[in-house]
Amino acid sequence: MINKKVVTRFAPSPTGLFHAGSYRTALFAYIFARQNNGKFILRIEDTDKVRSKKKYEDNIIDSLKWMGLKYDEFYRQSERTEIYRKYLKQLIDSGHAYISKEIPKEPGDREEVIRFKNPNRKVVFQDMVRGQIEFDTTELGDFVIAKSMDEPVFHLVNVIDDLEMGMTHIIRGEDHISNTPRQILIYEAIGAPLPIFAHIPLLLSANRAKLSKRHGAVPVSSYRERGFLPEAIINFMALLGWHPTDDIEILSLEQIIEKFSIERVQKSGAIFDEEKLRWFNKQYIGKLNDNDFIENAKSFLPKWLLPTSDSFKMLLPLLKEKIVSFGDIQVLFESSGELGFINNMQSIDPERLLWKKTPDREVAKKHLIETKLLLDKLDKTSFNTETVRSAIWPYVEKNGKGDVLWPLRMSVTGQDRSPDPFVCISILGKDESLKRISVAISLLEKTS
Ligand code: GLU
């Protein structure tokens, strides 16, 4: 049990879009705070004025909001210079830091910086994930902690903020392990107690290379744009480097908070397998009721397909079955997609109207004429998948599935892949279907 109120933070530098690696770090810090009834802080580490951009900060904030990770406090380092100056002064006055004259090597280099006076000794700390870590700080030399009194750098501001904000646990990516010894020296120089560190394993791409902004790390906003569900992303991410004891994989954020244990986070890198994320998304889409499905699908539907229309109702089961993310809906309706035929009937080579086992134009033509007559008898107002199927089915049974249905489906879709002909015909409606069948019949006539 932890006695002090737990405080964790996510401290991104706004120098790029919020990608999977950072998101997982944020998630673990969030989960740990919530499961201990603690506080979760978002701190934007924007001391690098050149690389930090407002648009990246916005992207981080929007993504966290979309994922439902609420923070209790928000800070921006660029607004805290006064606080850092106070500590810098204290460190200089106490002899732990000094103003160092430098020989500029390149244009723009400073003639003066503030360096930390390294006591050159061994630092030992207990990491919640990695166990005991020892580090000889001698090789670090007197490292720079500020370029001037108003320009402190990462190591210093990171420590001061964690201290000032009462951080009890520093949960962050393993890439920061090598920074920890410097930061511990600063804590000690200030005379502050150390927080507990937990360095979580890096995410690796499928070929086990480090996932980075340049290699395979997809921004969370792009998953959002492609119609992934935040619940699926959270579930997938939580299982990167951790898994529950019972191996049940589908978990809500509440369940994860209940079961998560930072001590059980693995040391080795976790593979970010997008296929697995797609699997999770499919599971979560499968759990949506019709209203929620429509809500999510809406923005991906072609303009002509209103969610309230009969066509949409007919397509709904098919969409539910086919998509892995809502963005797939757009792909289905593209001219090369399975539903592309609805809006783009390609001109068709009559040969393709012939069933491969009966490549006879007369046969195809005859079945098209007959099925057209059957469809023509149907009332427009009750023209749906079921009425279409019942109207044609006896004829199909008598004359053979392939022989009847292949030319029929081809005549209305012109596509090798599409839903079954009854669905296609009902979506197109009576007039459009009959028109397309007539065109196919005349094509067969012309060429025979
Ligand atoms: N600002 C650092 C980064 O973006 C994080 C530092 C930390 O978590 O301690 O990588």
Secondary-structure topology with pairs:
Layout: E1 7-10, H1 20-35, E2 39-44, H2 54-67, E3 73-76, H3 81-93, E4 97-101, E5 112-116, E6 122-127, E7 131-136, E8 144-146, H4 154-164, E9 169-173, H5 180-190, E10 196-200, E11 203-204, H6 220-225, H7 230-238, H8 253-259, E12 270-271, H9 274-286, H10 290-297, H11 310-322, H12 327-333, H13 361-376, H14 385-399, H15 401-413, H16 421-428, H17 430-447
Parallel strand pairs: 1-2, 2-3, 9-10, 11-12
Antiparallel strand pairs: 4-5, 5-8, 6-7
Helix pairs in contact: 1-8, 4-5, 7-9, 11-16, 13-15, 13-17, 14-15, 14-16, 15-16
Glutamic acid is lined by residues 11-13, 45, 158, 172, 176.
Protein model, in words:
The protein is of the alpha/beta class and 448 residues long. Among the domains are: 290-333, no CATH class; 350-447, Orthogonal Bundle (Arc Repressor Mutant, subunit A), CATH 1.10.10. 44% of the residues lie in helices and 12% in strands. It has 17 helices and 12 strands. It has helices at 20-35, 54-67, 81-93, 154-164, 180-190, 220-225, 230-238, 253-259, 274-286, 290-297, 310-322, 327-333, 361-376, 385-399, 401-413, 421-428, 430-447, and strands at residues 7-10, 39-44, 73-76, 97-101, 112-116, 122-127, 131-136, 144-146, 169-173, 196-200, 203-204, 270-271. The chain has a 3-stranded parallel sheet, covered by helices on one side. It is elongated. Glutamic acid binds at residues 11-13, 45, 158, 172, 176. The site of glutamic acid (GLU) has 7 residues, from loops.
